[in-house]
Amino acid sequence: MSLASLVALSLIGGAYSFDCSIPPIYIDVHKRAVHGGGAQEYGSFVGFGTASQNMSLWVSLSANETSVADPDFCKKSNLTDCDNATGGFFDSALSSTWKQVDDYKTTDEDEQARKNTGSFGEDKIHLYQHFIESQSATETAMDNFPFMLTDNGTSEPGKLGLGSRSTLLGRLSATSLTAGKSFSFYTGTAYERAGGAINGSLTLGGYDASRFKGTVYNETMNLTHSNPFRVRVADIVISDPSGGQKDRSLFDTSRFPNLEEGFSGFDAHISTDEFPLSLPYEVTQNFISMLAAESSDNLDGSLRLTKPFAGSMSIKLSNGLSVTLPKEMMFNASGLSPVAARDKDSSAPFALGLAWLTQVYLMADYDAGAFHLAQAVPEARFISVRTTCPKVVPLPYGGAGGKNFSRMGLIGAVVGGIVGGLALAFVLWFALSHLLLWRRSRAARKLAEGTLAHKLADLEGR
Known about the structure:
With 462 residues, the chain is of the alpha+beta class. It is 22% helix and 31% strand. Strands 1, 2, 3, 4, 5, 6, 7, 8, 9, 10, 12, 22 and 23 form a 13-stranded mixed sheet that branches. Strands 13, 14, 15, 18, 19 and 21 form a six-stranded mixed sheet that branches. Strands 16-17-20 form a three-stranded antiparallel sheet.
């Protein structure tokens, strides 16, 4: 087989596996008016049906199915402030493309499915790409997308399921709307519990290179759990330089005898289903002791500090990533802290919740079974979306190969893919043509040498 054929087959095979020229889908996360709701709600900009009914859906790292609220959900549910906490209501009677699916087999486990009840159906999903709030959005639409129409439950129904068996990510990849089953997420702080003003972002099939900086820390997914995002917490350090207290570890066995000898940390999963950190009982007690905390009546179980605190708390992972929660997060306007109360006999998993994610950019690659963590850049000056190529570690803007990327997001992704493809084609053509020229030159030399040898032999024979 010729070299040209081998090159062609190689390129075809690579493109067939993963087409890394497919631009990602960038979805902004902020407050907006939702269908059937009275207040603006914070979440991912998504619509369903024909005509589209717009929603603000919360990203779930454990749910695989996407779900929305039925118009009668709040009549049955005891969810607090229900009318303003669903992410919007989907009325199937108003959509001309809705189809009920009674025999749908959910990819969510029983434990996840028991939180809310409802029925499944199929309809068009609209993923809105919205780079600037003052400008209109563009959309990526997908027909016959299955989702749950939730009619009752105890948790917020409006969720975008991005778990390890995500129906959304699978469908996008299978229809070549994204290069693979991947996403990246920054939660933002412009919602009530976080108390900030910074919008978040969700990138399907890629990442925003301008939204993180510094070292990218790599982790292997634990796909045996419904939430595969597991990390090892190596230390938690409280610092309050203004109060004369600096770098006091909650893991210090000499200071806290309630810890087992040799205590070196604990495993926790990253969660978007809860705001505060859920820590081991002994570590939680150390936090209470050090910062004079007490239980509160807040619905998410956050501890309240009884004294003002102007310091910070750093959570250090075994992989080297250190995330610092600032004073505004440690002691908010209501005195709430980012740590949840915990009963001694609780069996709930330890978790790094949304409070932790306000400082972290999360990048997930299910095709490679890996996820990546980096320090977030909350107030990024521009958007620079890039395609996630499986098994390739994402790089922040300005990293190797990133300086020529457009600041206009998807345009940069498309142009970068085209230019990169043309450049690769040129290099291959250049190498192949020079190889052919070299072969022809070599053959010509051999022919000339052979002709000369024959002439010399003839002369000698004379």
